[in-house]
Structure formats: structure tokens, C-alpha cells
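User: My advisor asked me to double-check a structure prediction for Formamidopyrimidine-DNA glycosylase before group meeting. I don't want to rely on an old file, so could you generate it fresh from this sequence?
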Amino acid sequence: MPELPEVEVVRRGLERWVAGRTVTEVEVLHPRAVRRHPAGGADFAARLEGQRFGVARRRGKYLWLPLADTGTSVLGHLGMSGQLLVQPEETADEKHLRIRIRFAASDGDSAAGTTGTELRFVDQRTFGGLSLHDQTPDGLPDVIGHIARDPLDPEFDDAAFQSALRLRRTTVKRALLDQSLISGVGNIYADEALWRSRLHYDRPTATLTRPRSAELLGHVRDVMNAALDVGGTSFDSLYVNVNGESGYFDRSLDAYGREDEPCHRCGTPMRRRAWMNRSSYFCPRCQRPPRTSA
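Assistant: Sure, here is a fresh prediction for Formamidopyrimidine-DNA glycosylase from the sequence you gave:
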């Protein structure tokens, strides 16, 4: 599932190609793509047509497009395989196209020699979707008002995070994946930050000193910024940016997906362990397990 860097790459693409555009037509081609919009596809289309998109926003793994002057937003949930693609109208439909949003013609379209562009939601596995929501006073769709700020947010409170981390009475990886504590971190970047911090995923949060928790947070930021620089992590063709291009951070991973490969720091074969219906990758020498678990 896309994590913060992948969603931010998509957000930047939408900011460039979609912000300020006026919607002229919406086609909902699969009902599951709007299942989080209880009123259904016809209502979703009717409420969106004629509206103008503002600048795309993101909090953690969540992405939305505000509608100018309405107090509502289109929330995009990418799921496992969702893609938001900006395409010329004449481009052939993708096999798993679920929603089409057409825009009014613009000077940019004319200069590109096209009849117009459209935003397409493509989703092979149909776990994702789009939905309309009212906004909270700080501009978030109301359904994600409980989501914490992410570590790349300028208003993220480092001291509050460090204090809350020690009080959670859990293990460090569980805490990193708790979106009410810190948003945007998923399985890949948690494993990468823990490897850089030499912390085992089952280390109790209560044992982390303030310097150690600060170091961990620094590594979370570093690994996410490094991933952003190369377009995120793409293990297959399902994650792409709005232009259909893959990211390349999978070539720089130190932990995730490297079972039995030598640790980049000490050469010990990396290990994988089943963890909360996922996998955790770690170095058994650099990231020694705790003597007791939380």
C-alpha cells in the first residue's frame, strides 16, 4: 500500500496538472470506486460537475482535492493498487479504469495539441476509491480528522511525539504504524527507519530515551525524503505517479524485502519475521531483539 512518499509524489503531480481546473463531466464506471460515498455514483458525479479543484493536499497517506468555495473535498483512497492518472482525452482507456473526470479546455491543453485532459482513477483490485466529504475547520475531510500530523509536516510536534511514544506501552514498530500518533509511516519505511536506528521492531517504547526517540524520528524523515527524491518505492507497475512513471527507491532499500541478503552495515544475512499479518525485515546482529517484550 502506498505510504507517505508515494502519496506525496501523486499530490505534487495533481498540484501541477489539476489545481484550478473546472470539472465538466464525471463518469463512474465501477460502483466499488465510490463505495465510500454513500449516496452513490450518480450523486458523486452530479455534485462534482461544474466545481473547480483547489490545490491538492495530503496528511500522512491521505490525499484530497478541495473544491473551491464549497467546504467539501474529494478524498482519494489509493488502496493496494489505485492510481490517479492525468491523461489526454484521446488516450485509450486503461483496462481497470473506474472513474473519469473531464476538465474544461485550457490554454495548457491547446498548447499540448490535445482536445483536453482528464483525471482518471484506475484500480485493478478495487480496494481504493474517491468520495466527497465536508471539511473540518482546519481543512481536512471530516473522516480523517483524527489522523495525526506526519513527520514532514512543518507543524509536527517532535517533543509531543517523543513523550507520547514513551507513554504508549507498546512496541516501537506498532507505534510507528499508529496513524493517530504519527501518520504516513507504513511497513516499508518503518523497517527502513528501524534498521537505520539499529532498533528491533519489538523494542518496547517505554525503553526509548528522548535522544533515541529523536534519532528514530530523524531517520524516519531521512528515509522518506530520500524516497521522495526518486519518486517513491515501486515494486510493480501498480504504484505510479500521475504520468504513469514508477519510483526507484526499491533500489536503495536497506531492510525491506532483503531476506537472506547481507546487511549493508555488517554483512549478516537479513531476516524476515511474520508480524501483524505483515512481514518485518531486520538484521539479527545490528537490531538485537529485546530481552523482554512490551
